[in-house]
Amino acid sequence: MQQFFRLGASALALSLMAGSALALDADFYKKAGEPFQGVTLRGVTESTPASNYVREVLAPRFEEMTGIKVEIETTSWDQMYDKAIKDMEAKTGIYDMVYIEQDIVYAYLARDFLVDMTAALEAKPNLKLPDFDEGRLTSFADNFRGKNGHLYGMPMEAFVKPYVYRTDLFENPEIKAAFKEKTGRDLAPAKTHEDYTQIAEFFTQWGKDHNEELWGTTAQAHTGHAASWYEFFESVAPTFGVYDWGIDANNNYAATVEHGGRMNSPEAKEALKYWLHLRDIAPPESVQSTWSEVATTMAAGRAAQGLVYGENVAWIASDPNQSRVVGKIGVALPPVSEGVMEAAEKGEGYIGYYDGGAFGLPVTSKNQDPTLLFMQFLAEEEIQPDWTLAGSRITTTATYDDPKVKELDAKLSGYFTMMKDQGKLFKGAPPYPFHAQVREATAPIFYEILTGTIDPDAGLDQMAAKAEQELTDLGYRQ
């Protein structure tokens, strides 16, 4: 997801590079890179904290060791996809690396766009780093494995989407007393949707009464951008027990209640009305907010709570150059309906979105061998801690235990601990090769719901029917 934070050739990037004592196998990289002197690898990715760190810190370090230049193009989310897909479709071989978000990898695998990196390294042992081991990657890597269990993407960022709240507001004695008087209960992070709504309404009214630029919640509710569609189906609907977009892959890909799906189920309709109400009491920029603006809204201190992509949590909580709420951020699990948490703990559901991405090696790349070297470099344990500090991402299990990461974790109200211990409660997008097609088919109706052109209940009915029509046209529904 496109983010606000940017790592340029900044003091932060330079200091991280200088402060990283990378105990890497320099002899291996030097020898392995000898045949590729003068080669330039080109990659395209979304401009995220993790990607910008690759461009500004890791790529120069790799070039220093191998003599292989790496140029990383960071751009917007939509441009990134457009450039990568067009290159792979046309087989022009412009890019040696493409960013693969967790939700689109299944479509790439279905179209045979990517090199099987496991098999490629087995076939060319001279390119394999002696201590490279796929087993040290976190379970998030499983999202980028094919049916044969092989790795088709090297994870470079991974994060959950937690419930973020302002500790300074939740712990303020005056506010706590006012909340108790108004609601009859103590102010604490919400466990249920009813709790969350009550807290959101309270803080929005508090802002009005005290002439403050403060609202009770964020809302990723852009009226013409896929971010709002994703917010609803991947972050909100699951907390009401509506999973996998309400499409039942085991029941002829049914989406409508009539045919056994849940996209327009009573729970989905309840979830949508809940979210639309929050949108209406959120900051005015929410109707034009994607994932980027939600992060900046929270960092500006304009909201008391919200669902925020985890890759933003670190800079919001710790970077005074970008955030007005440094040291004032807490994280918790998202509020859920009755039975949803229990289902998630049993592995029968989930409570929110586990996002992230990997770098894939297109089969059209003209520089596959040196790219394989760079992919392994991205899994080196020694580079992980500073990369995590820069981008709130963890892709190897050992990173959780690094002292730098533990120190930051304490400042983030245990966000990394949440990922480690409770990441199993979150889930990525469903493994649909038709991901983009169904989203694009239904999104226009969703935007009409957001603008008030269509009633929410009727809109979800139309979306479910449209999803089934698209799946029929694509050959998935028989």
TrEMBL record:
<dbReference type="GO" id="GO:0042597">
    <property type="term" value="C:periplasmic space"/>
</dbReference>
<dbReference type="InterPro" id="IPR006059">
    <property type="entry name" value="SBP"/>
</dbReference>
<comment type="similarity">
    <text>Belongs to the bacterial solute-binding protein 1 family.</text>
</comment>
<keyword id="KW-0813">Transport</keyword>
<keyword id="KW-0614">Plasmid</keyword>
<dbReference type="Pfam" id="PF01547">
    <property type="entry name" value="SBP_bac_1"/>
</dbReference>
<protein>
    <submittedName>
        <fullName>Sugar ABC transporter substrate-binding protein</fullName>
    </submittedName>
</protein>
<dbReference type="InterPro" id="IPR050490">
    <property type="entry name" value="Bact_solute-bd_prot1"/>
</dbReference>
<feature type="signal peptide">
    <location>
        <begin position="1"/>
        <end position="23"/>
    </location>
</feature>
<keyword id="KW-0732">Signal</keyword>
